Prior knowledge:
Elements: E1 34-37, E2 53-54, H1 57-61, E3 68-71, H2 73-81, E4 88-91, E5 94-95, E6 98-99, H3 102-109, E7 112-118, E8 122-124, H4 125-136, E9 141-147, H5 153-159, E10 165-170, E11 174-179, H6 182-192, E12 196-197, H7 199-207
Parallel strand pairs: 3-4, 3-10, 4-9, 7-9
Antiparallel strand pairs: 1-8, 1-12, 2-11, 5-6, 10-11
Helix pairs in contact: 2-3, 5-6
Amino acid sequence: MTRDDSPAETDADADANANADADGAASTPDIDEQLLVLPDELRHELKEPMGPIETDADRLLEDVDGPLIAVGDVVTYHFLQAGRPPDVALVDERTKRSAVDEEIRETVTEGTTVEVVNPPAEISQAVVEALLEGLARDEPTTILVEGEEDLVALPAIVAAPEGGSVVYGQPDEGMVHVKVTEEHRQDMRALLDRFEGDVDRFWELLEATGD
């Protein structure tokens, strides 16, 4: 079964310069949108799974009893096939830096709520705002990312409520399930504080949610 990239599998050299359509659903990123950039020295730390790995979506869902955030096309696809739309899904139409199958692409993007830009190896203001808005909505939210969505698993763990689930793909292994606790949040805060960029602005956005 094909897997999504883990947060460590970002590619800063990937094509992140795609422009928005004239209807303006997404926009070309500028310096004001960039919040955090992954330093090279942190990449190895993100290769280790942040929770248990599961290969069966139905079995994983047995341990989900709060909001479900899915990061990645294949992860999202498996939850949809299992009849459990994620409360927030982040997809970019790619897996392991290759285009996903057409069936997966059509399935996961059908319910697209918002489109944002998030360049590889970065966390943009636009994607953070979309994540927070999705968590505040009562209906399932699908965020279609122009660029890469992998690193959004990290702020998702911080922003998700206690007991919520953040699930992302571990290449060639399965789906990593992080059931959010205060310890997870503290670990992610410490990690995100080591990113480059406008860390203060990043925390301002998250703290505005009352987390």
